[in-house]
Amino acid sequence: MPNSNEKTIKLLIRKTKPASVRSHRYGTIRVRRLTLGDMVFLEKLLDDNLAARDLTVKLIQHQVSAPPEAMQDVALWKERLLLRVANAWMQAEKLGRNAASQVATCDEFKQAVTDYVAQQHRQMQAAIESVERSYRETIAPALNIATSSMSGISDLMASRLGTIYKDNLGIAHQLDRAFESGAASKIGAAIARVAIDRSQIEQLESVMTRMTADIVPPWVQEARLARQTMVDSLASLVPAIKFNAQMDLLSRTTQRQLMPTDAFQQAASAVSQLAEAANMAKMSQMTLLAETSLMKVQPPDIASLLNVQQELRDSVRGAFSQFSSSFAALYQPPAHLLSGSVPSVNVFRLPPVEYFAGAHLLESISIDEAVRDITPQQQQAKTDIAGETEESLPALLAQLNPSLVRLWRGAKQALGSDNPDRVRHFAISFRELTTQVLHHLAPDDQIRAWSNSPDHFHQGRPTRRARLQFIYRRVTNDKFGGFVESDITTSLALLDLFQSGTHGVAVEYTPVQLDAMALKMDALIRFILEISAGNG
Fold first, then answer.
1. CA R_g for the chain
2. What is the dihedral of CA 189, 190, 195, 197, to 10 degrees?
3. Tens digit of each residue's pLDDT (9 = 90 or more) over 468-491
4. pTM across the whole model
5. Vertex 289 angle, CA 1 and 518, to 5°
6. Residue 192 CB coordination number (10 Å)
7. Does residue 289 contact residue 377 with C-beta atoms inside 8 Å?
8. At residue 19, what are phi and psi to the nearest 5 degrees?
9. What Cα–Cα distance (Å) separates residue 421 from each residue in 170, 406, 407, 509, 516?
10. Do 485 and 465 touch, CB atoms closer than 8 A?
């Protein structure tokens, strides 16, 4: 999947088809295209502060590839021919402001080359800064995935895991210092050390799995299966990243020399793999946090804290069981291949967020707060998800229809009010918001133009499944649709628990439960909108 670094590279690396000009004396004069390696030559040419004609002659002479006699005689060319060739080359390189840009004098040509080199510097600097940001933001979670994937599972292992965790934190700090100092050779040793620690953790996890196999709820096994696939994929990605040579090149931000094209491509490939590994690390962490919540929830405990009908509780249990199965199915080995089948990075990394939000809500309505032990990692995950959603969801809704933002804000404000009817208002508003979003993203007329299958219609109207299938129609992973549909079903079944509690016997919802419900519904709406945005 293309990322921001690769897009930048495409700006800097162009096809090498030469420009050409017909002349009476030389026939067809061919002028080769620039490569990144030629940038050093252009910089030196400008640093020499040559007269405009001399610069034009030297640059054209450097770029002419045929015929031989033309290459030798550039200094003897008349200015008319020199400028014809210069303009043809400029058009091929798109040096001017538009494809039809022409220069009438050598002075104008010199200025165009000066502007071009400055532009290339800006683009290259942006690429290097992007690489550096990716490195700093992703290397720490990629290194710490082994320890974080075991956090909170068992006090029996706390001492050993604590030692490993501290070791890995030290490695992360060491890498930060290595990057700042340019001592990239330390990175390979750090990666090797993490691999050793990861093998030790796998041994501990194997023991822990055998010890708890008889008491683990069924959905925990499925979450664990998905997470293990993610960890295995991370292990396969990280060793493939050739840090030493590439990062050493990228850290030369103080030098004006630009790296050759192939080296830049190799470095960008390493960064792309690193970013993918970081995403996989974050996804694994989120799945582990969901697993930690689900470890506590046995099937009979589902929604036991709510005074609702057993039928509704059974409905949630069945929906969440299917949700877990579809989540595990989504991550068939190797998990990182999913990234090539979804339309955007956000869509790739959001299923574990959805799963965590669902698990957190299930825990909040099933396990008494007095005995729940919310870890700092879980609390931070909730804060991060809520922050990302608050930042992105209003804009996504506004692009669809500004009235949806008002509906969303009204639901959130109702939940925070003292109105005794606030929970019913919240539940009804979010159900309506979900319906409105689906209908805006998949209108009836577009569904009919897309499909005439009877399975997609009920009494002449598109079904919810048809609308969802239309929204994720460009996702090539056949397990993805099942996950999205089960996510919707589970979220609405959970919402029914809250809405049903507003009728008949009063239910006192705790702030934690209401926050968890809001987190799940916000995450769901964002997920649907991100899928649609990625399909655009």
1. 30
2. 120
3. 999 988 888 888 999 999 999 999
4. 0.60
5. 85
6. 10
7. yes
8. -80, 160
9. 52, 19, 17, 12, 18
10. yes
